[in-house]
Design goal:
about 170 residues, alpha/beta, 5 strands
């Protein structure tokens, strides 16, 4: 509630940093609150055993009214599970941090169950170089300019839901 009062528009959790499993029930009260506030939930993925894409997809299915952002899309060891996770849970989104366009992102784009509409540009600055992350999206040759514009910003509107700034709509 303090975060809401301070202007929060999302919930971010890191299971590895905090030492919990996404399916152990500890998040449930927070996810219920996030759903009541129409917040999306960012969950960093990629580090076993607690932060991998498929359990996050299962969690998303338990909370179908919440939009989940799979941070780092399973990078780097669990990229192979990112697309199946997105197919499994329609309320799960992917971010582009660390994801190479010629493999992971292009798989999302060509899959009719995923597409680029559930991909959101991100960096992991200061651990990545934002300019390099942006170049990866600008060089993504298998998508249209309209799809690229979605990834670079327009898709964020759907993820933000009612919290999207009025000038962005």
């Amino acid at each position: 509630r303090r975060a809401l009062d301070a202007g929060a528009v999302a919930l971010a959790v890191d299971p590895v940093l905090r030492g919990f499993d996404v399916l152990d029930g500890l998040l449930d009260p927070l996810l219920t609150y996030a759903e009541e506030q129409d917040w999306f939930v960012y969950i960093r993925t990629g580090t076993p055993p607690t932060a991998v894409p498929l359990p996050v997809a299962s969690l998303a299915l338990r909370f179908p009214g919440v939009r989940f952002l799979m941070g780092k899309s399973g990078a780097t060891d669990f990229w192979i599970d990112a697309a199946p996770a997105l197919r499994h849970a329609p309320n799960l989104w992917a971010d582009t941090s660390y994801a190479p366009w010629d493999t992971v992102l292009s798989e999302f784009a060509r899959d009719p169950e995923i597409g680029t509409g559930r991909c959101v540009f991100s960096t992991d600055a200061p651990y990545t170089v934002p300019k390099a992350e942006l170049k990866r999206i600008l060089d993504w040759s298998t998508i249209s300019d309209e799809q690229r514009a979605g990834v670079l910003g327009a898709n964020l509107l759907a993820l933000l839901g009612s919290h999207a700034p009025p000038g962005w709509r």
